[in-house]
Write a structure and sequence with these properties.
This protein is of the alpha/beta class and 239 residues long. The protein has helices spanning 42-50, 72-78, 95-102, 109-118, 134-146, 164-179, 192-198, 216-220, 223-230, and strands spanning 4-13, 16-26, 31-35, 57-62, 65-66, 80-82, 152-156, 184-188, 201-206, 209-214. The chain binds adenosine-5'-diphosphate (ADP) and magnesium ion. Magnesium ion is lined by residues 42-43, 85.
């Protein structure tokens, strides 16, 4: 049985359908990349999986239970957490206090230290997020999502705006989270180096629907996928 499964998952905004009858099955332990042109519905899909937005139709099952109507707090409790495409850090709090907030008031100083060490910010606990390099800020966001010990981690463009070196560190970090902590991961990403190094499979969204799914090399060679990127004059994400 997959750890996560969606059946006919749909989200509309008025007459516009942002996520359109998506069937998605993710086995425990997998790293799955979700790609697609701008506006394809990737972020809305993560909002539906994390409980930030309720779906207009379809179902979401996690670990054998129907969580379609479980809100974001309930999903965190069940083991689904996420990072955001746009920064969610509190700039006026220290790095360590940002992690404490992510633990929702649970006093667990060993966990704060462990999570900061894991993302390489053990020495930066007393700093404030604006004092960190961009890549470190993004790694802190991953630390916040990781703090409550999720089984499923949802990452929305974690390498956006990163240098090559920072992206390399992110690849190493995500690999450790998956292999050492055993966390299943859905990652919305454009960077093909990261996708090819980390993802077992890719799901391609286009206009809210699943256009293709398969191993990275298969998907990169898929004519419909190439057309979805190239046909609209968009950057082909290295495909
Ligand atoms: N709250 C909202 N209200 C109306 N339209 C929205 C809302 N959120 C997203 N959309 C639309 O849904 C589509 C998919 O958006 P999004 O999931 O952010 O795309 P992307 O694949 O780039 O992450 C876009 O056309 C966007 O404008
Ligand atoms: Mg997005």
């Amino acid at each position: 049985m997959p750890l996560l499964e969606t059946v006919g998952l749909t989200r509309s905004f008025g007459a516009f359908t942002a996520v359109d009858r998506v069937d998605f099955a993710l086995p425990a332990g997998e790293v799955r990349a979700v790609i697609g042109p701008n506006g394809a519905g990737k972020t809305v899909f993560l909002h539906l999986l994390s409980g930030l937005l309720p779906p207009s139709g379809g179902r979401i099952r996690f670990d054998g239970a129907d969580v379609t109507r479980v809100g974001i707090v309930g999903r965190v409790r069940r083991g689904i957490t996420r990072s955001f495409q746009i920064t969610s850090l509190f700039p006026n709090l220290t790095v360590a206090d940002n992690v404490r907030i992510a633990l929702r008031g649970r006093r667990d100083e060993p966990r704060v230290r462990e999570v900061l060490d894991l993302v390489g910010l053990g020495g930066a606990a007393a700093l404030h997020p604006p004092e960190l390099a961009h890549g470190d800020q993004r790694h802190l966001e991953i630390a916040l999502a990781l703090a409550p010990r999720p089984r499923l981690l949802l990452l929305d463009e974690p390498t956006a705006g990163m240098s090559l070196g920072e992206t390399g560190r992110t690849i190493t970090l995500i690999r450790r989270i998956n292999r050492e902590a055993g966390v299943t991961i859905v990652i919305v990403e454009h960077d093909m180096r990261l996708i090819l190094e980390l993802a077992q499979r890719i799901t391609v969204l286009d206009r809210g629907a699943v256009l293709a799914e398969g191993a990275p090399r298969e998907v990169a060679a898929d004519a419909r996928v190439r057309a979805a990127y190239l046909g609209r004059g968009r950057h082909a994400a290295g495909l």
